[in-house]
């Protein structure tokens, strides 16, 4: 429940700004799983071991259009960097629960049925990591990841 940042622990912040308040102890900022893993998995491995991804996941309703919340990459790294360089990314998540999840009898699972997530493409991540010729077809469509 902690890794998914279950709404049973605290309600989501669902702020209007892209980055939810991290100082509000009464609500959840984002999914801990997505903060730790999702964008790094999508971004893939870089040719340079000094480049890493640090993600900030935020809970928002993913279908909301006013205001619209989209993922972003807030920094870049040169491909040949020789010191640690972090790509700071922002992802958007929303946990979805089944109707019977509210009835915590032990019979039905109470974990999220799905976690809807908006993340940046591998192409966009590669470009931010210093590969300006990253092609969407080869980075995101071809192969089995």
Describe the structure.
The protein has 3 helices and 4 strands. By secondary structure, the protein is of the alpha+beta class. The protein has one domain. Strands 1, 2, 3 and 4 form a 4-stranded mixed β-sheet that branches. It is elongated and about 55 Å long.
Can you lay out the helices and strands and say which pair or pack?
Blueprint: H1 32-43, E1 51-59, E2 72-73, E3 85-96, E4 114-118, H2 122-128, H3 136-141
Parallel strand pairs: 1-3
Antiparallel strand pairs: 2-3, 3-4
List keywords for this structure.
145 residues, alpha+beta, 4 strands, 17% helix, elongated
In short:
The protein is an alpha+beta fold and 145 residues long. The protein contains 3 helices and 4 strands; from the N terminus they run αββββαα.
The share of residues in extended strands comes to 15-25%
**Biggest sheet layout:** 4 strands, mixed
Give the tally of structural domains.
1
* Number of helices in the DSSP assignment: 3
Order of helices and strands: HEEEEHH
Could you tell me the mean pLDDT? 90
**Distance from first to last alpha carbon:** 26 Å
Residues in helices, as a percent range? 10-25%
The overall strand count is 4
Q: Which ranges are low-confidence, i.e. pLDDT below 50, for 5 or more consecutive residues?
A: none
Oligomer: single chain
- Overall 3D form: elongated
State Rg: 17 Å
Structural class by SSE content: alpha+beta
């Amino acid at each position: 429940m902690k890794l998914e940042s279950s709404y049973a622990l605290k309600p989501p912040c669902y702020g209007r700004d892209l980055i939810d308040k991290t100082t509000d102890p009464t609500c959840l900022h984002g999914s801990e799983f997505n903060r730790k893993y999702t964008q790094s998995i999508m971004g893939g491995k870089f040719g340079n071991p000094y480049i890493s991804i640090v993600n900030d996941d935020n809970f928002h309703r993913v279908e909301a259009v006013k205001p619209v919340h989209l993922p972003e990459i807030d920094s870049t790294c040169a491909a040949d960097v020789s010191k640690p360089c972090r790509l700071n990314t922002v992802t958007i998540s929303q946990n979805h629960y089944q109707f019977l999840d509210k009835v915590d009898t032990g019979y039905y699972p109470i974990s999220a049925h799905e976690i809807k997530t908006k993340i940046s493409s591998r192409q966009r991540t590669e470009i931010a990591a210093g590969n300006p010729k990253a092609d969407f077809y080869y980075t995101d469509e071809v192969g089995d990841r």
